[in-house]
Amino acid sequence: MALLTIQWVLDITPPPEKFDYKVLTLRLIPILTAAVHTSSVTYLNAMYDLALHPQYHDELRQEIKEVFASEDGQWKKQGLTKLMKLDSFIKESARFHPFQAGTMDRIAMRDYTLSDGTFVPKGTYILTPSSAANLDPDVWGPTAREFDPWRFQKMRLVPGQETLHSLVQMTPKFTYFGHGKHACPGRFFAVNAIKVLLVYTLINYDIKFAPGTPEPQMMWFSGKTMPDMGAKALMKIREGVQVPWNDVSKALD
Q1: Which tops the pLDDT comparison, 242 or 109?
Q2: What Gene3D superfamilies does this protein map onto (predicted)?
Q3: 6, 97, 183, 212: least CB-packed within 10 angstroms?
């Protein structure tokens, strides 16, 4: 991800600045700050949920095997889009673990009256209460506070709804990556990267929490969140799987 981002920055940088490392660094810092932590937080929360719910691992692995078997065993981008259950699992994890209390922060540039009659004066700072809405039965129904890994996969099985409930699809009900024309443009790349990491993890490892381990709790600060940095999960290489550690060590030499 980082290498591709660097290349994109190089491609759009005017020639005189292309060889100025200070300019390139300043261009990259805000991009990496915005991109890296959001992807890593989403991945870590999904890992915690995998450890909390090992009963879903086999079903996820079966989907992975079937999808990539249909792709002639090749890891293709199109194959990642077909992982509907994995996509649903990540999205349900994200629903339970918002980045912040509210999203889509805006300042009213002029007086405005909403369709329900609410008057918003110029200069008003507003945002949507996404965190509260994520667990609201009025939004998600009576199972709003239950972790249902296939919630969004089942929605996508309805004819005509195949793409409307994927993780990258923004709706007024789910604003994890924002909404409208200002929605995060990098969400497609980020979601694919997260899927690759989780596919690799599921295929090669078993993961769970030790008996009696308390459920990880998000840390809140100034309306923002972070995953529980003190949580510890157990991981082991699955029986019959050989992770190519030698190849990894050679690449690092």
Answers
A1: 109
A2: Cytochrome P450
A3: 212
